[in-house]
Automatic annotation (TrEMBL):
InterPro entries according to UniProt: UDG_Type-4/5, UdgB-like, Uracil-DNA_glycosylase-like, Uracil-DNA_glycosylase-like_sf
Source organism of this protein record: Jatrophihabitans cynanchi
PANTHER family: TYPE-5 URACIL-DNA GLYCOSYLASE
Protein name, UniProt field: Type-5 uracil-DNA glycosylase
Superkingdom of the organism of origin: Bacteria
Keywords noted in UniProt: 4Fe-4S, DNA damage, DNA repair, Hydrolase, Iron, Iron-sulfur, Metal-binding
Length: 263
């Protein structure tokens, strides 16, 4: 059973009265009318606009992985995580089925998160190197983490329709955050390809020719730095395609562009 809004889950901003998006049109309307980040995050976490994703995330929360059989699962969309005035925005792909879909916080409770938060800590952008649960005391320094798709997808592969349906949430998030953001770190090609149309939907002028995704690729947009990194998936970290120094260098580059101190 997934976490019910208002049940006291750490960090849950939704209540039984939070409006629920049932389709793409609802996402657009409810996202656009969110007056601040707190209201937007609450609405994100009760969204039911993508039937396949709703069925999958709730099935995972019901069946569970054996290692977490005695734990409750969040089983809902996962909102962004970090302070409301970040200078760096990290854009991933989607919640992991037994990571954020279980814990209710981006990149928390799985090995991808272990890599990301350890790197943020090494660079000086997090107060601790581990992320276990939504109430573990982890705090980010000038960084917010979000994703183009807020529900855990089967096989970690959202469809283009699901991505486009979810875009309204990210569009409004960027509108609210963009004045203070100075750097965007994008983890993986899916996030890189999602960023640019979302920025255009915000009315932000993007480069006439956006560079193809690659690790360390950079682009200037509206006076901000966008920089790509291989995703922190096990497929990349276990094979050595992404190493700790590679990830640390990208985060340090973003911190420098954002005017944040680095260890």
């Amino acid at each position: 059973m997934y976490a019910v809004p208002g049940s006291g889950w750490p960090g849950d901003l939704a209540t039984p009265r939070t409006p629920v998006a049932a389709d793409a049109a609802d996402v657009g309307r409810l996202a656009a009318s969110a007056r601040d980040l707190r209201q937007l995050d609450a609405r994100v976490t009760v969204c039911r606009a993508c039937p396949r994703l709703v069925a999958w995330r709730e099935q995972v929360a019901d069946v569970k992985r054996r290692a977490f059989a005695d734990e409750p699962y969040w089983g809902r969309p996962v909102s962004g995580f970090g302070p409301p005035d970040p200078r760096i925005l990290i854009l991933g792909l989607a919640p992991a089925a037994h990571g954020a879909n279980r814990t209710g916080r981006m990149f928390t409770g799985d090995r991808s998160g272990d890599w990301l938060y350890a790197a943020l800590y090494r660079v000086g952008l997090a107060n601790r190197p581990t992320a276990v649960s939504a109430g573990d005391g982890l705090e980010l320094n000038g960084v917010r983490i979000t994703a183009p798709v807020h529900c855990a997808p089967p096989a970690n592969k959202p469809t283009t329709v699901e991505r486009d349906t979810c875009r309204g949430w990210l569009t409004r998030e960027l509108e609210l955050l963009w004045p203070g953001v100075r750097a965007v770190v994008v983890l993986g090609a899916f996030g890189w390809n999602s960023l640019w149309p979302t920025l255009r939907a915000c009315g932000i002028v993007t480069p006439a020719r956006v560079p193809r995704f690659a690790h360390g690729v950079e682009a200037q947009v509206d006076g901000r730095l966008a920089i790509g990194s291989y995703h922190v998936s096990q497929q990349n970290t276990f094979t050595g395609r992404l190493t700790e120094p590679m990830l640390d260098a990208v985060l340090a580059r973003a911190a420098d562009a954002a005017g944040l101190p680095v260890r």
